[in-house]
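During the no-cost extension, the postdoctoral fellow (Dr. R.K.) reprocessed legacy sequence entries with the updated structure-token encoder. One reprocessed record is reproduced below for audit purposes.
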Amino acid sequence: MPESPLHAPLLSWYAAAARDLPWRAADRDPWGVLVSEVMLQQTPVDRVVPAWDAWMSRWPTPAALAADSAGEAVRMWGRLGYPRRALRLHAAAVACVERFEGRVPSTYDDLRSLPGIGDYTAAAVLAFAYGRRAVVLDTNVRRVLARLLDGAEHPRPSVTAAERELAGSVLPDDDATAAGWSIALMELGALVCTSASPRCSACPVAGDCAWVAAGRPAYDGPARPAQRFAGTDRQVRGLLMSVLREAHGPVDRAALDAVWDDVVQRERALDGLVADGLVDPLPDGRFALPS
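Re-encoded structure tokens follow.
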């Protein structure tokens, strides 16, 4: 596509405002980028940085993680939330060793073939690890483009073909510039064009923003799901996982029963953890992280 008037100001802004994050270093490794992208799904950056540092110190390559147990990956995941991501990373590391000579693959199809790696993560690794042109659509990017191009406060609940096509229409043709554009959009959404309190006066492309030009109209699309944690099965699952992580070995049922009074909800949460492969029920009635 011809160069957009949006490209230069946003790229210049990113060059000056980008956060210094370890997975963005000039000598970044594709494995480190993949780990960061999985950790950053539904988890704030400030919680991810120390977890990423610890993870990469222990398992600096896919082969290092693949040689360890899935249970240790879950234990190391700690309190990042959604611990199935740890299992997926472990399975992806095993696949890298078995099918890609211990390296993170560098094509979209090969990345998508890794366990638990979806469209967004594959595109992000292509862009941010390998500097390739890819349509990267995370929550921040989708919100920025919805405002900038569509004049909507928020994007639709799920990605549509039209949204993907529109995002591709403003993606620079050059690989390196396209990768820079994608990460700059993401950073703008994280620091300036935030969900609840956008700082339009600090935005480098506010003058070309359709939402600003329209007077910042309120979102009128399908209802956006609200996130709740207290009292949910997710909270109970987290409490059960904490007991297992901290035990460094099998635990008795009584230790798990003590974390939540509602028997039905507690058993439902435990059954879910077993079904997800996060907990192994042992023949003697105890429970452990996966071996």
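The chain has a mean pLDDT of 93. The domain at 1-225 is CATH 1.10.340.30 (Endonuclease III; domain 1). The remaining legacy entries will be reprocessed before the final report is submitted.
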